């Protein structure tokens, strides 16, 4: 169907035949029983083109000034026409007469709590999409306001009315049945929503939003493969495993979905704080272990961030004041450092590591000047990487925060630096030996002083005895 009122018939080799309809067409469908092509458009007449006789038959005439859509049921053969007036007219092609009329706009207005008065209200929502279910009893109608109503042909009241919430006209409707139940798919130009058709409340089951405006939706029978005709050159294809398996011609989609299901992802939420068992004990929350308040993870627990903040404030109410004073002190020190230019300022944290890195840089510079022995290429790479460590902002906290201070007494450090540990043990042993010799010298000096005092007493006794004899 073309915009110039032309209808083209195509075969494998290309265009087979062209014909024109009296009015601009909007929708068409084929009646396999009578071999008629039903064309509706911007007029109240329904044009019937007999493909058997090759001519137009007497048209049907509906009560509305224009018709937007048409659909045919394969069960009972009724033709349903969705009009601009918001009504759905069902016609029986065997009797060539109207079988019934349903005011969809009024029923949708009742569900929304508004009253439709056709004589006064000219902006009545028209019916833009129609679809019969495979059972022949269910009929879905979509309006220009973005509402979808599901009807049972035996009742004039809709089973439920659903809103797309975009305010766009419904462009296509589809019924889909699986082993778990039936579903109703409603699509406007923005989104496709899948409603559970088996339930009277029609809960939302899934939704798909392509990147371009939707014109029509094609559902592969007995599968979960959906194809969208949009305002783009390419078709948008989506596969929903919950709606059915993949078709036989693209069965690899099932294996892809199985691989995605096997991969499990650990979710870490932003509103949780990771704490160790020691930190949990410091906060006084050890009694929460084993409850739903904390979640065990690796070597600690996940704790609610708000609970952690409240507990931290209760345990140390002056922490914010200390933090504020520390920040002020750091700012003052930074300003003082800017005023007083130092050649090579050393940080307070890990000062020995910085001195070691700077010493390596000096040795490398001397080697380049020819004043020192040659340095191995591996040592050059090590010195270069260590010098970048001082310049990289990602490792700034290593030389600013006290919690990153290297503990040389830890067992991990001694395992990584066995030579330094051996040197420390030798130094301690040498200090102990030097201390023992010092104590021996002091003891020798004490014995010599005692002997000298005894000699003085003997000399004094002899002098006193000599004086008494005189």
Give an overview of the whole structure.
The chain is an alpha+beta fold and 470 residues long. The protein contains nine helices and 24 strands. It has a four-stranded antiparallel sheet, with no helix packed on it. Strands 7-8-9-10 form a four-stranded antiparallel sheet. A four-stranded antiparallel sheet has the order 11-12-13-14, covered by helices on one side. Strand 4 and strand 5 form a beta hairpin.
Main traits of this protein?
470 residues; alpha+beta; four-stranded antiparallel beta sheet; 9 helices; 24 strands; elongated; disordered C terminus
Write the layout of secondary structure elements.
Layout: E1 6-11, E2 14-20, E3 25-31, E4 36-41, E5 43-50, E6 55-61, E7 67-72, E8 79-83, E9 87-92, E10 97-103, H1 104-112, E11 127-132, E12 138-143, E13 147-152, E14 158-163, E15 170-177, E16 182-188, E17 192-196, E18 204-208, E19 214-219, E20 225-230, E21 236-239, H2 252-262, E22 272-276, H3 277-282, E23 294-297, E24 300-304, H4 305-315, H5 319-339, H6 351-369, H7 377-391, H8 411-416, H9 418-469
Antiparallel strand pairs: 1-2, 3-4, 4-5, 5-6, 7-8, 8-9, 9-10, 11-12, 12-13, 13-14, 15-16, 16-17, 17-18, 19-20, 20-21, 22-24, 23-24
Q: In percent terms, what proportion of residues is strand? A: 25-35%
Helical content stands at 25-40%
| Contiguous helical run count | 9
Strand order of the largest sheet: 3-4-5-6
Q: Describe the biggest sheet? A: 4 strands, antiparallel
Radius of gyration: 46 Å
The N- and C-terminal alpha carbons lie at a distance of 160 Å
Mean of pLDDT: 81
């Amino acid at each position: 169907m073309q915009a110039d009122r032309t209808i083209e018939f195509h075969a494998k080799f290309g265009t087979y035949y062209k014909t024109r309809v009296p009015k601009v067409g909007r929708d068409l469908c084929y009646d396999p029983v009578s071999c008629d092509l039903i064309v509706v458009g911007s007029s109240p007449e329904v044009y019937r083109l007999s493909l058997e006789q090759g001519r137009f038959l007497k048209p049907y005439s509906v009560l509305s000034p224009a018709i937007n859509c048409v659909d045919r049921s394969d069960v009972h053969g009724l033709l349903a026409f969705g009009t601009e007036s918001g009504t759905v007219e069902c016609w029986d092609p065997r009797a060539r007469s109207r079988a019934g009329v349903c005011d969809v706009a009024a029923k949708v207005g009742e569900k929304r709590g508004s009253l439709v008065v056709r004589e006064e209200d000219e902006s009545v929502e028209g019916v833009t999409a129609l679809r019969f279910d495979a059972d022949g009893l269910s009929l879905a109608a979509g309006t220009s306001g973005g509402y979808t109503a599901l009807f049972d042909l035996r009742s004039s009241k809709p089973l439920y009315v659903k809103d797309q919430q975009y305010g766009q006209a419904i462009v296509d409707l589809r019924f889909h049945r699986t082993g778990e139940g039936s579903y109703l798919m409603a699509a406007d130009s923005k989104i496709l929503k899948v409603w559970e058709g088996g339930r009277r409340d029609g809960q939302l089951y899934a939704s798909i939003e392509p990147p371009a405006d939707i014109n029509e939706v094609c559902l592969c029978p007995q599968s979960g493969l959906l194809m969208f005709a949009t305002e783009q050159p390419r078709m948008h294809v989506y596969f929903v495993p919950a709606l059915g398996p993949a078709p036989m011609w693209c069965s690899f989609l099932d294996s892809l979905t199985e691989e995605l299901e096997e991969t499990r992802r650990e979710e870490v939420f932003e509103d949780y704080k990771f704490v160790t068992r020691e930190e949990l004990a410091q906060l006084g929350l050890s009694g929460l272990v084993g409850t739903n308040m904390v979640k065990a993870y690796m070597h600690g627990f996940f704790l609610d961030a708000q609970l952690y903040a409240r507990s931290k404030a209760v345990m140390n109410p002056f922490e914010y004041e200390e933090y504020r004073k520390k920040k002020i002190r750091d700012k003052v020190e930074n300003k003082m450092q800017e005023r007083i230019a130092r050649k090579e300022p050393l940080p307070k944290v890990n000062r020995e590591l910085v001195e070691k890195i700077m010493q390596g840089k000096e040795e490398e510079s001397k080697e380049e000047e020819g004043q020192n022995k040659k340095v191995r290429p591996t040592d050059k790479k090590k010195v270069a990487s260590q010098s970048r460590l001082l310049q990289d902002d990602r490792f700034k906290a290593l030389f600013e925060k006290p919690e990153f201070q290297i503990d040389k007494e830890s067992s991990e450090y001694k395992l990584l630096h066995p030579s330094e540990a051996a040197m420390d043990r030798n130094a301690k042993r040498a200090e102990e030996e030097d201390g023992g010799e010092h104590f021996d010298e002091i003891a020798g000096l004490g014995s010599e002083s005692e002997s000298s005092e005894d000699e003085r007493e003997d000399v004094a006794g002899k002098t006193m005895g000599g004086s008494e004899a005189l």
